[in-house]
Amino acid sequence: MKTARNHMEYLLGLTPHQFDLLEFLRQQLKEGGDMSRKELHEILKIDSATIARNLSKLIDLKLITREYALSESAPPHYRYKTFESEYYAEYVGEAISEMFISIESFISE
C-alpha cells in the first residue's frame, strides 16, 4: 500500500532523496532560518554535487528559495530557505487540483 509520503513524492515530482532534503530543510529552518549548501553537506554527509542537484530541483519547483549572502567571515555563497507551512499546503492543494482535472479529462475522452 502506498503511503502519504509516496503520494506526496509523486504529486510533487520528487525523488525520495529530494523529498528527504525538502523535509530536512522544513524541519531545520523554522522561523525564517536559512542554510548553506556547505552546511547541508557537513550535516547530511551527502556528496556536495548531489545536494546541489537536489537543491536546484527544489528551487525549479518553487519549493525552496535561495538568497545570495555576503559575509566578512565567508566567501559569497547562497543561503537556502523554506516557506511557511501554509505555502506548502496551498502548493499541494493546487497540485491535487491539477491532477484531478487531468484525470477527469482522461476519463471523459
Brief synopsis:
With 109 residues, this protein is mainly alpha-helical. The chain is built from five helices and three strands, in the order ααβααββα.
Q: Strand sequence of the main sheet, in spatial order?
A: 1-3-2
Low-pLDDT runs: none
Coarse structural class = mainly alpha
Nearest-angstrom radius of gyration? 16 Å
In helices, the fraction of residues equals: 55-70%
Order of helix and strand elements from N to C terminus: HHEHHEEH
The rounded distance between the terminal residues' Cα atoms is 29 Å
From the spread of the alpha carbons, the general shape counts as elongated
Count of helical stretches? 5
Mean pLDDT: 90
> Which percent range describes the beta-strand content?
5-15%
Q: What is the subunit organization of this protein? A: single chain
> How would you sum up the major sheet?
3 strands, antiparallel
Number of strands: 3
Task: Write up this protein.
The two termini are 29 Å apart. The chain is elongated. The chain is built from five helices and three strands; from the N terminus they run H-H-E-H-H-E-E-H. It is mostly helical and 109 residues long. A hairpin with a 7-residue loop joins strand 2 and strand 3. Helix 2 packs across helix 4 and helix 3 crosses helix 4. The protein has a three-stranded antiparallel β-sheet. The longest helix has 24 residues. The mean pLDDT is 90. 61% of the residues lie in helices and 11% in strands.
